[in-house]
Description:
Elements: E1 2-7, H1 10-13, H2 15-27, E2 31-36, H3 39-48, E3 55-56, E4 59-60, H4 64-88, E5 93-96, E6 107-108, E7 120-121, H5 129-137, E8 141-144, E9 147-149, E10 155-157, H6 160-171, E11 177-183, E12 201-202, H7 204-213, H8 220-233, E13 237-242, E14 252-254
Parallel strand pairs: 1-2, 1-11, 2-8, 5-8, 11-13, 12-14
Antiparallel strand pairs: 3-4, 6-7, 9-10, 13-14
Amino acid sequence: MINVVKIGGNVIDNPPVLEAFLRDFAAMEGKKILVHGGGKEATRMSESMGIKANMIEGRRVTDRATLDIVTMVYAGLINKRIVALLQAMGCDAVGLTGADGNVIPATRRPAKPIDYGFVGDIDPAKVNHRFIASLLDEGKIPVFCAICHDGAGTLLNCNADSIAAAVALAASRIDDTRLTYCFEKPGVMTDVEDENSVIPLITPTLFETLKAQGVVAAGMIPKLQNALKSASEGVKEVRICSSNNLLSDRGTIVRSQE
Length: 258
């Protein structure tokens, strides 16, 4: 079993919580891969430089200046901070962008109907699963940030949830794979203020209903879209949970079948 874990949200912004999560991740047995976001830190960096973040349905519009910032924050500051912490915990982590080893090529998203700028879409079939397998076989732990490339010299900002889904699908070509999305909440909830309102199971029909009702919005939309896609295309299990429940079975299970 290969475990692909995506971490994001407020966890990355909270050093004690991040360290506790990474200790749990380090304790996971077997082959594993970590994918991280860092949008909140990128937004703070942008605003400190006088560049206002522009978000549409949870996805960042990325002009040239914003691309430079997210590359510095995701591939540099956050990625290397996580790698260093994992190394201190005895994990032989390797920090990667999608450009390294041409592991995750992407295509710049068309400008219509919405021009997202330097934002990439990923075809999971093009993810280099052999490169990932070679790292796992050597006992390495790949740590992917949300930066990919177009193969023609341009870096692209990609949604970290999409990268996690694509990597999980690639890993499923190597072995049975479990994808876990970890963030600051205990799962997908009907009321974000009530931690007892976790929805235990989400299917495509329920997702559309929750989206129409506004229960699911902003960044949760692409997260669930990617979870459903992964579940339908070969990932054995997809779960959304709190970062402190990584080693438990709590949270929201996402299934492609009704």
